[in-house]
TrEMBL record:
InterPro entries: CBS_dom, CBS_dom_sf, Cl-channel_core, ClC, ClC-type_chloride_channel. Keywords: CBS domain, Chloride, Chloride channel, Ion channel, Ion transport, Membrane, Transmembrane, Transmembrane helix, Transport. It is a multi-pass membrane protein. This is Chloride channel protein, CIC family. SMART domains: CBS. It comes from Epilithonimonas zeae. Its main location: membrane. The keyword Repeat does not apply. It is found in: Membrane. PROSITE patterns: CBS (PS51371). Residues 491-548, 554-611 form the CBS domain. Coiled coil: none annotated. One of its GO terms (cellular component) is chloride channel complex.
Amino acid sequence: MKLHNKKKYLSFLKFKRDFQQYGLEKARSYEIVLHWLSSRMSRSQFLLLSGILVGLTAGLAGVILKTLVHNIHYFITHKVHFEYQILFYIIFPFLGIVLTTVIVQTIFKGQDRKGIGAILYEIAQNSSIVSSVKMYSQIIQSAITVGLGGSAGLESPIAVTGAAIGSNFAQTYRLSYKERTLLLAAGASAGIASAFNAPIAGIMFAFEILLTGVVFTDFIPLVVAAVCGSLLSRILLQEDVLFRFYTREAFNYKNVPYYLILGIVTGLYARYFVIISQKVEHFIHKLKMSPLRRAMFGGAVLSLLCVLFPPLFGEGYDTIKAFTNGETLEIMENSLFRYFEIKSLTVIVFLVLVLILKAFATPFTIFSGGNGGNFAPSLFAGGTAGFLFAVVCEQLGFKEVPVTNLVLVGMAGTMSGVLYAPLTAIFLIAESSFGYDLFIPLMIVSVISYLMAKRFSAISPELKSLADEGKIFTNKHDKNLLFSLNTKDYIDYESQTINENASVEELFEMIKNGNKNTFAVIDNDKKLKGILDLDDVRPYLFSKETESLSLRKMMKAPPAIINPENKAQEILQIFDDTGFWNLPVVDNNNQFIGFISKSAILIGYRQLLKLYSE
């Protein structure tokens, strides 16, 4: 062994001994190797290596999930035979939601937070620390739900899985909050890239939805992770599993009016989809049922919808491919519309009803107990809306309507309006269709739909409930940090209190021996009656007429009262509105807890900002 290599080997053995002395003797060999590498590499080098490893792992998870669902679909459609097709659509969607709910309640203890909101919640509220369970729980749940016919998509579960992989990798190697967040996003982007074989779309997804304030140098791990995830899916997945569209027309500037109108159509439909999803979610949450009964109810509704309209079964990508391949009649032949004479009007009515009911099928799948996301439903609905628009234009007598292009850009338009992610939508369709010459119509439709969505709601409605609760940020990096501050950590529990019946002399003695400038006046039940500060007391300190004074006369009502459940951002706004720097904190029974200062929150924010910037 050469001297140079021998020194490296001895250095590694010494690191391994030191590593084990810190209570990590059970660590796996590859973990020790990576810890050693992290000590030998620069930060940028190790982040690059981390991006590659996280990207490959998250990409593999995406491949496994897509393969599982594809095989389940193949098995139930080719190996399981029912005498009547109606039994097929009744049994499997119902079974998928019920089985998923049983697994969540029994194996995962009811922890069913899902969707992109789950990732944002972990970033803002849990310092980007994601439970290791999510590295496999989302795969199991969504494979059963969507594989058996749930009208939802796999992309959100894949993104959550990738985020969990990135977060746990960062936790294992004790990376900082900023690096942990970056690898979390890298895992999510790799998952999206593997699902669509679209690395740029994966990067745009992380950039638009998950990350803010990322500098260019920190963007490199995100890029390599997305590329690794995409390459892995391209190598391992079969062609019929990939999200690919090969047939399309060349872009013609004369067709721009079609795209302008389609942008408005997809924007309006996206808003309809969002509103119906919210109403269904609220309806299901108000049902006074056990989780299992709720799943049975939602499964029954979904099964009925799939019986009436089979395109609502599963992700729906096969239906969109059929549209682009001119196989619309085959889709209708599997539905109840086969009993009607197939005419243009019949096709239009069929497509309109599919679009209307898709907005019900997806939330019933997700919120009644299934697992999935809105990626695939928005793409399916957008493609259907684009095809419907093309059919209507043809029936109105327009010649040379770009049917396939309208299907493709319709997908981007609806996705942009539903997810508030126009760049992700544009690059996703461009990469999936090899349609880089379609950038102009993609941008036209996506931007129009996005602007219409923003006109209705400033932030994505899918995340609005979390934002209203103060659990996630909306669009500002500083809000993200403020939301991660826990109010209870900044309360002064050693605040001095005095009973409202105490004498003035007792107050003076407390001032003399204490070190506080503000005091809480409470009653015998520790309920807040008022506050006193040194400015209020100072005029009486050297007064000889203290016998006529009482604390009730000297105290004043606080300008505002803080509750421990108030978020840091809300409290800072209250401080700004009142002009005070110290305010009392009380519980729901008005019992005094302590004082909280504006300075304490600002110091906490600066410390977190410094930690994030390191």
